[in-house]
User: Which sequence fits this backbone?
C-alpha cells in the first residue's frame, strides 16, 4: 500500500515544511471563517490526502488519494459559497481536475494492464513492452500538468486559488501543485524511463511558455491572490524548464548535466513552496484586515502591519530571483543548466535553447516589475481606501505562521548545500549520477556549476558582504550625525493624498501597452464633464480588464465549436425527407469514390473530378438555394 | 592585494568624475559654457552637510532603501575583473550574480519611488520596471555569449582569460556582443536615448522621478549609486571588450585602464549629443536591437564559429 523511498521522503518533507507553519496560520485565520467544522474536516483531510499521494505504493492508492485531494480542495474552495464567483471557480476547478483525472486513469489502466494494485516497478516492465510509450507520456502529462497548472491547462488557477480561504490558497499553490511535480518525478523516472529526446523538448517548451504567460497575466491582475496564482503558473513553468533540460540531457547521455538540471528543478520546487506559501499568507493577512482582494484599495500597510510587510518583502525578493535569496539560487542553477546546452552536439537544439534562456530572463525581469507593483502598491505610500486606513497587524498565531514560513525561506537560503545534498541523494537513489561533490568542490561556501565554462556563486558570502556593506553605510550615516526633518511629500502645490499616487493599473501601464497584442484589454473610460467643458470634469474613471488569451481562444473557442456543431446536428434532425434522400445519395457517392481511391489506384485527375462531382451534388441537393 | 585595493579606491574616486566629465563634454559640444568636471564632488559634499527631509507618508523603506540601493553596487564593484595582470580578483562571483546584484539595487530604487505617495515616484518606478524587464534578457544573452568566448562565466575569470587569449577567431560574435553590451550600458545607466538624466520634466523622467523626494544624505547615497553603476558598466566594458594593455607595468596598466574608461565616457557623451531621447514606447525597439545582437552573437559563435 504505502512505501517510503527517497523520492517519497523528500516530498513528504516538502509537504511537512509547507503544512506546519500553515497549521498555525490557519488556526489564527479560523475566526474569520463561518463554516468552521466544514473547513476543518476538509482542511485536515486535504493534508492527509497529499501525504497519501506521495507515499502511495501502487496505482490504486495513488489514484484514491489523488481524488480525495481534488475533492477536499474543491470543498475548501467552497468554504465561503456566498462570495461572488466562488461557485463558478469551484465548478471550473472540479471540471479541470477531473479532466486531468481521466487521463491519469487512462495512463494507469494501460500501464498496469488493468491491474491497479501493481507496484510501480512492475509497471515499468509493462510499459517496456507497450508499443506507444509516447501515448502514455501524453496521458501522464495531461493528467499531471492540468493539476500543476502548466500552459495550456492553467486557466483554472487564477480563479480557484483566490476563491479559497488564504491558508488553503497557500496550501494549494505552495504544496498541492508540488504533488503534481512529484507525480512527474515518480512516473517519468520509475515507469516511463528512458525518455526520447522529444519529450524533454516538449516539457521545456511548455515550461518556457508557462513562465512567460504566468508572469504576463500576473502583471495585468488587480486581485492580489489572482496575481499570486498567476505567479504559480510562472514558477511551475520555471520548474518545468529545469525538468525538461534534465530530460533532454539525460536522453543525450549527459548524465551529470541532467542530474544538475533535476537538482535545480527540485530546489525550485522547494523554494516555490516556501515563498509562495508565505506570499499567500501575507496576502491573506492583508485581506483579513482590509476585507478586499483588490490591490487598488490597499496602500500604506507597511506602517500598520510591519511583520506582514517584512515577511512579504522577503518573499518578494526571493520570488523575483534576486541575490542572495534561495529563489535566486535555484534560478541560477536553471540558467546554468541552460548554459550547459553548449555541450549539445545537435545544432538545431543548440540554437533553440537560447530562446528558452530568453524566455526565462524576460520572466525574471517581469517578475521583478510585478513584485515591485505587488509590494509597493500594497504596503507603501498612502492608504487608498478607508479599509486600508483602519488595518491593524494580524493576531499572534497568524504572525507566527508567517514568521515560521519566513524561517523556511531563510533556511533554504542559508542551508542550501544541505538541501542540495538531500536532492542529490534522491537522484542517486533514482539511479542517476550524483553531482554533490562537483557542486561543492571547495566546501559549502561556493556553489559551482557543472556546465563547461560554468560559473560560481556563494550565497552566504554575498549575504555577508551585502549585510556588511549596508551596516558600514548605516554606521557612516550615524557618524555623520545627519539631521532629519519630516515633511509632506511635494505634490505640485496640492495636498498629497491617496489619489496623488500611482495606481497598480498605472504602474503596469507601460508593460500592458507593450504587450497589447497579447492582452487585448477591454478599457472603460468614463468622464463627467462640467457644463460642456472638454478639459474640466467632475469625476473620471479608468478601468481595464484583461481576459486571458487561452481562456478566450482555447476554452471559449471550444465552447463555440461545440455549439456550432450541435446547431448543425439540430438542423440535420429537422431536414425535409427529400434532403435526407439527397444526403443518402451523397454518402453513397462518397463511399463509392473513396472505395475506388483506396482500393484501386490513385490519380489526382480522377480525384479532382470526383471531388468536383461531390461538391456540386452537395451544393445542389443538400444546401440548395439560399432563401 | 595592494593593486586590487588601489584599483578599487581609484574606481570609487573616479566614479563622480566620469559622470561630471560626460556632462562637461556634452556642454562643450553643445557650445555651452561647461561645468567644472569636479562639480559632482562639490554636490556630494554639499548633500552630506544638508538636512535630510523625510516624507511623512513614507515608511521604513525610504530610510533603509538608499543604503540597500548602494550596497549591492559596492559589492558588485568588489568583484570586477582586474585592471592589470597579476592583480588579485574575487573569483567566486559570476556574471549572473552580478546581473542579479544590479537588479537588486534597482528593485529597492523602485520601491523608494513608490514609497513617497507621489505621482512622480510611481511614474518613475513604473517606467524603470518596464525598461529593466526588457534589459534583463538582453543582458543574460550577452553574458552567455561572452562566457562562451572567454571560456568562463566568472566575471573576474572572464576578464583575465580574454586578456590572455583574445578571441581573434571569434571576432564577429565578439563585436556583436560588444554592440549589445554598449546598448545595455546606455539603457541601464539611464542615458539618452533611453532616459535623460538632466531634465526634471515628467514627460521624460525615469531615474530622476523615482528619487525626486529624496534629499541630503539619502540623495547623496543614490547619486553615488548612480555613478558607481556607470563605473561598473564602463569597467566591465573595458575589461571584457577592450582586453588589452593589462600586461604593462602596474601604474601604466592602471593609466591605460582609466584611459579606457574615459574613452567609453566620451563615446556615451557623443551618443547623447547626437541622438534625441526616445519616447518610452520606442525604447523597446532599442533594447530589441540589443537582444537581436546578443542572439546574433550566439548564433555566429555556434554556427560559423566566428
Assistant:
Amino acid at each position: 500500500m504505502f512505501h517510503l523511498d527517497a523520492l517519497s521522503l523528500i516530498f513528504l518533507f516538502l509537504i511537512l515544511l509547507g503544512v506546519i507553519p500553515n497549521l498555525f496560520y490557519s488556526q489564527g485565520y479560523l475566526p474569520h471563517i463561518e463554516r468552521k467544522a466544514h473547513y476543518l474536516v476538509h482542511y485536515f483531510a486535504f493534508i492527509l490526502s497529499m501525504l497519501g499521494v506521495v507515499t502511495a505504493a501502487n496505482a490504486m492508492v495513488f489514484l484514491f488519494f489523488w481524488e480525495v485531494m481534488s475533492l477536499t480542495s474543491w470543498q475548501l474552495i467552497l468554504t465561503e459559497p456566498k462570495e461572488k464567483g466562488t461557485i463558478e471557480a469551484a465548478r471550473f476547478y472540479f471540471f479541470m481536475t477531473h479532466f486531468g483525472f481521466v487521463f491519469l486513469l487512462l495512463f494507469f489502466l494501460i500501464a498496469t494492464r488493468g491491474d491497479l494494485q501493481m507496484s510501480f516497478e512492475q509497471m515499468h516492465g509493462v510499459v517496456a513492452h507497450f508499443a506507444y510509450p509516447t501515448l502514455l507520456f501524453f496521458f501522464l502529462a495531461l493528467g499531471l500538468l492540468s493539476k500543476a497548472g502548466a500552459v495550456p491547462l492553467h486557466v483554472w488557477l487564477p480563479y480557484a486559488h483566490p476563491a479559497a480561504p488564504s491558508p488553503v490558497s497557500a496550501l494549494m499553490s505552495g504544496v498541492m501543485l508540488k504533488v503534481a511535480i512529484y507525480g512527474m518525478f515518480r512516473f517519468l523516472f520509475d515507469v516511463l524511463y528512458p525518455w526520447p529526446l522529444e519529450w524533454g523538448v516538449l516539457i521545456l517548451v511548455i515550461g518556457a511558455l508557462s513562465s512567460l504567460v504566468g508572469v504576463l497575466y500576473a502583471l495585468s491582475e488587480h486581485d492580489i491572490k489572482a496575481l499570486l496564482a498567476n505567479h504559480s503558473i510562472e514558477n511551475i513553468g520555471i520548474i518545468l524548464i529545469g525538468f525538461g533540460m534534465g530530460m533532454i540531457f539525460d536522453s543525450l547521455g549527459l548524465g551529470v548535466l541532467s542530474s544538475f538540471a533535476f537538482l535545480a528543478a527540485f530546489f525550485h520546487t522547494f523554494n516555490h513552496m516556501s515563498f509562495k506559501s508565505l506570499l499567500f499568507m501575507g496576502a491573506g493577512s492583508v485581506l483579513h484586515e482590509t476585507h478586499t482582494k483588490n490591490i487598488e484599495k490597499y496602500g500604506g500597510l507597511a506602517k500598520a502591519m510591519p511583520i506582514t510587510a517584512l515577511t512579504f518583502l522577503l518573499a518578494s525578493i526571493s520570488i523575483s530571483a534576486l541575490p542572495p535569496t534561495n529563489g535566486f539560487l535555484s534560478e541560477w542553477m536553471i540558467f546554468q543548466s541552460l548554459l550547459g546546452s553548449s555541450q549539445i552536439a545537435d545544432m538545431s537544439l543548440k540554437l533553440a535553447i537560447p530562446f528558452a534562456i530568453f524566455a526565462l530572463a524576460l520572466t525574471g525581469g517581469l517578475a521583478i516589475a510585478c513584485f515591485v507593483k505587488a509590494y509597493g502598491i500594497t504596503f507603501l505610500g498612502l492608504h487608498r481606501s478607508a479599509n486600508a486606513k483602519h488595518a491593524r497587524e494580524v493576531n499572534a498565531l497568524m504572525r507566527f505562521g508567517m514568521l515560521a514560513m519566513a524561517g523556511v525561506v531563510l533556511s533554504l537560503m542559508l542551508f542550501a548545500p544541505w538541501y542540495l545534498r538531500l536532492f542529490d541523494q534522491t537522484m542517486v537513489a533514482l539511479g542517476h549520477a550524483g553531482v554533490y561533490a562537483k557542486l561543492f568542490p571547495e566546501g559549502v561556501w561556493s556553489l559551482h556549476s557543472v556546465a563547461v565554462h560554468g560559473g560560481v556563486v556563494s550565497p552566504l558570502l554575498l549575504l555577508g558582504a551585502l549585510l556588511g556593506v549596508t551596516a558600514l553605510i548605516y554606521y557612516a550615516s550615524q557618524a555623520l550625525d545627519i539631521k532629519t526633518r519630516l515633511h509632506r511629500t511635494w505634490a505640485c502645490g496640492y495636498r498629497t493624498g491617496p489619489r496623488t499616487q500611482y495606481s497598480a493599473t498605472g504602474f503596469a501601464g507601460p508593460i500592458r501597452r507593450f504587450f497589447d497584442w497579447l492582452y487585448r484589454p477591454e478599457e472603460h473610460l468614463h468622464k463627467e464633464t462640467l457644463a460642456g467643458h472638454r478639459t474640466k470634469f467632475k469625476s473620471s474613471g479608468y478601468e481595464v480588464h484583461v481576459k486571458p488569451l487561452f481562456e478566450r481562444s482555447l476554452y471559449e473557442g471550444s465552447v463555440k465549436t461545440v455549439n456550432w456543431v450541435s446547431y448543425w446536428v439540430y438542423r440535420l434532425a429537422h431536414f425535409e425527407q427529400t434532403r435526407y434522400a439527397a444526403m443518402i445519395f451523397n454518402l453513397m457517392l462518397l463511399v463509392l469514390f473513396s472505395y475506388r481511391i483506396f482500393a484501386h489506384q490513385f490519380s489526382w485527375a480522377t480525384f479532382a473530378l470526383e471531388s468536383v462531382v461531390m461538391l456540386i451534388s452537395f451544393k445542389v441537393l443538400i444546401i440548395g438555394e439560399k432563401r | 592585494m595592494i593593486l586590487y585595493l588601489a584599483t578599487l579606491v581609484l574606481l570609487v574616486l573616479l566614479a563622480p568624475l566620469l559622470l561630471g566629465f560626460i556632462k562637461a563634454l556634452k556642454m562643450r559640444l553643445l557650445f555651452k559654457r561647461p561645468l567644472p568636471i569636479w562639480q559632482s564632488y562639490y554636490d556630494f559634499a554639499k548633500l552630506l552637510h544638508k538636512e535630510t527631509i523625510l516624507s511623512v507618508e513614507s515608511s521604513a523603506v525610504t530610510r533603509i532603501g538608499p543604503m540597500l540601493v548602494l550596497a549591492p553596487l559596492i559589492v558588485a564593484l568588489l568583484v570586477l575583473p582586474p585592471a592589470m595582470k597579476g592583480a588579485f580578483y574575487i573569483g567566486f562571483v559570476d556574471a549572473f550574480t552580478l546581473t542579479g546584484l544590479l537588479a537588486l539595487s534597482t528593485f529597492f530604487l523602485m520601491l523608494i519611488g513608490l514609497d513617497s505617495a507621489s505621482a512622480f515616484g510611481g511614474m518613475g518606478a513604473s517606467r524603470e520596471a518596464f525598461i529593466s524587464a526588457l534589459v534583463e534578457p538582453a543582458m543574460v544573452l550577452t553574458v552567455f555569449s561572452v562566457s562562451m568566448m572567454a571560456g568562463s562565466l566568472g566575471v573576474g575569470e572572464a576578464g583575465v582569460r580574454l586578456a590572455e587569449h583574445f578571441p581573434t577567431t571569434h571576432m564577429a560574435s565578439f563585436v556583436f556582443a560588444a554592440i549589445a553590451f554598449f546598448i545595455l550600458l546606455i539603457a541601464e545607466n539611464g542615458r539618452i536615448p533611453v532616459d535623460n538624466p538632466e531634465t526634471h520634466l515628467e514627460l521624460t523622467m525615469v531615474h530622476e522621478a523615482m528619487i525626486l523626494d529624496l534629499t541630503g544624505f539619502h540623495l547623496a547615497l543614490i547619486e553615488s549609486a548612480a555613478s558607481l553603476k556607470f563605473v561598473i558598466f564602463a569597467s566591465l566594458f573595458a575589461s571584457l571588450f577592450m582586453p588589452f594593455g593589462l600586461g604593462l607595468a602596474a601604474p601604466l596598466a592602471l593609466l591605460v585602464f582609466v584611459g579606457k574608461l574615459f574613452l567609453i565616457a566620451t563615446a556615451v557623451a557623443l551618443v547623447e549629443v547626437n541622438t534625441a531621447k526616445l519616447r518610452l514606447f520606442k525604447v523597446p525597439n532599442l533594447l530589441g536591437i540589443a537582444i537581436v545582437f546578443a542572439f546574433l552573437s550566439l548564433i555566429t559563435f555556434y554556427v560559423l564559429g566566428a
